[in-house]
Structure prediction request, 882 residues.
Amino acid sequence: MVRALALFAALMTATPLLAEDGQEAVTTFTLDNGMDVVVVEDHRAPVVQHMVWYRAGSADEPIGASGVAHFLEHLLFKATDTLEAGEFSATVAANGGNDNAFTSYDYTAYFQRVAADRLELMMQMEADRMRNIRLTEADIETERDVILEERNQRTENNPRALFGEQMSAAQYLNHRYGVPIIGWQHEMEELDLDDALSFYRIHYSPNNAILVVTGDVDPEEVRVLAEKYYGVIPANPDLPERVRSQEPPQTAERRLTFKDPRVAQPYLQRSYLAPERDAGAQEKAAALYLLAELLGGGTTSYLNEKLQFEKQMAVYAGAFYRGVSLDDTTFDMVVVPAEGVSLQEAEDAMDQAVADFIAEGVNAEDLDRIKMQLRAAQTYARDNVDGIGNRYGRALTTGLTVEDVQAWPDILQAVTGEDIIAAAREVLQPEASVTGWLMRDDEVTQ
Amino acid sequence: MRRIFATLIALVIAMPAWAEIEIQEVTSPGGIKAWLVEDPSIPFTALELRFRGGTSLDDPDKRGAVYLMSGLIEEGAGDMDARSYARELESLAASFTYNASDDTVSISARFLTENRDEVIDLLRTTIHEPRFDQDAIDRVRAQVLSGLRSDETDPNDIAGRSFARMAYGDHPYGSEGKGTIESVSALTRDDIVAAYDNVFARDRLYVGAVGDISAEELGALLDKLLADLPETGKPIPDKAQVSITGGISVVDFDTPQSVALFAQKGIDRDDPDFFPAFILNHILGGGGFESRLMQEVREKRGLTYGVGTYLVPKDLASVYLGSVSSANDRIAEAVEVIRDEWARAASEGVTQKELDDAKTYLTGAYPLRFDGNGQIAGIMVGMQMEGLPIDYIATRNDKVNAVTLEDVNRVASELLDPEGLHFTVVGKPVGLETTN
Prediction:
């Protein structure tokens, strides 16, 4: 029974659980201009999802312009040389389709879901806005108000989101992941036309993009259309390498308390700097993924077993690992204390449980059960080809290859209990951690 | 500068090809009816079981009992306590999810073909022999209370509660189905057992199944799972009297962005004017970026990240609802723009082009809903509960296309009530005050 606590799970971007399977009909190729293409077939319904992913997210923004990647995402729905502002979405709708876009630290993606016979029109329009947007000062002013209201809605009105921003900012000493995707409010207020166009010119080109088409399509037809619309766009020879300032060794444990009168349910969060999935070297990440599942993945996980069932000190406990990331990511734990249990008591109990878990070693039955669920997830995943497409889009924009995506399920199955304990010992280091307490305004810090 | 796409659009304006969804009605040997889409292409099945009644079956002094009960179904059954039950379910790699809303309690199950019999054994035990152990009740109750405490300071939840109280009064719709901190704290094991007896009965059961299962297999499965349920449960409550008077209620809450719910009387799903109203709503506020409200409030003025409207025809009352959020110093302007658009649509109606665009979108987007076994199972159960015929999917777009401009504009003038529109605003809105 975790429904009432979905908000805590939503704190974390879900790590992709679904694994690949030989039976997924995936075809990949690259156009001459360097644009990667992934096609996932599903012929059960005459529907297609067309997506373009750019290897450009908030962590690629210049200093002082936080939020510009997401701002530009909004502005891509304005005019181009051949489309009026709003006409892109209106055309998708007039064809019975839906469209939208999203921005993260490492990528920005645009998508349409539409009847399969409309794929060509989608490609024509998406290729158009890769190079030809035409923005006005009026667009900037109005849309900047919209993103500020978006920040209000997602973050300023939500103490849990504000707390999460402070956690990330404390975790990353030198890396851009410490800055929120949507941007800091004071920098968002100053974003202008030059900021948006500069980001666009640098990052939006076919050799920095991945086309992902899923649904009722023939890969050969996708290739012909992709060459016709995207293949004719010249590669950007000046595309910069994605060089970001990296984290130095982290040597000091950090703690913070965030107080807000709107907090009704205090909780604590712990994050550790952790390695991400790297191309050709995903084993440690696989061990961390299973560590998160064993420690805090569900009702039977170790933290819930100890804190919810045995000690009855928590109403909820969870562990999360986001392996798909270009640079160092985090391993996170959350504990929501039971009524009458202080945050300090909950934190001590969490630390004790993690220490006991490492000392006891992995229970073989627990690991087998999780591996069985991962194998089943490969079957369930085939019911959602858009999800499969998203998995490739995320992977290919974060430094992984098609081969890495396809090898992941077997790598997960090969992880041993010893691997998991070794990864836990290596990553769960206090000096690379941040501990945060989200508190009511009137609570006394001990 | 019209555009290079003009020809392409003209070519594709014809209807997209249809999703061929073949629904069979299955009646089990024991007399349980279900709708089935058999699709063996992936070796699993999605099964949706829905019981009409939902949290509205709570006695007034036991508010939250059905909700808490639905959270306890998975907390131990037969000879398994909560922990061994969870391990058993995980080892089968199946999932059962439970949801309790105002009108229904649902069980959504997903299971592999390879161990279907074992999963159904477990689900049978779950449905027929839930333990409701006291320690599980206390643990899950604490989770619900934690959620309720969070809801108390969530502006969206505050607005929803305030609106419901005003619109529905003492009817179950007038209060939160999750209950209150006081009511949930007082629930006993007897209350949970009573809620269980109230909800699970054959006279209110609707079933949909999609995936790798034949009609015969489904029939046998349904008898095993459900034939032993009692024939009847607690009577469904009477319809709610909806009371929405035009004006503004401000709920003072210290947060930077005000959240507003706006509402007026609605229209029932079986009303002959439902389709014109549905199209009208799409044009006014239902249809993504193209709706009038999104254009006026967001695209032209940048007053919000999102504004939307929804026809909400529930079993026991229908309302027409919308929501918007804007910074405290801008919400008054958003409210004014919405009121003006409401009045303009009521007096002037919509244009032929808006109607045509809405029809193209609504008919073209309809097949996009049927993506995934669980999704289709849920839609089929919804259709049965609304009393729609089994061939409805094939005829639904004809009903949309049959609506004329006169229909929509007549309904716009009859349904839309700018004077009766009530805004419930939570925040520190500048320039807005409670009016009545």
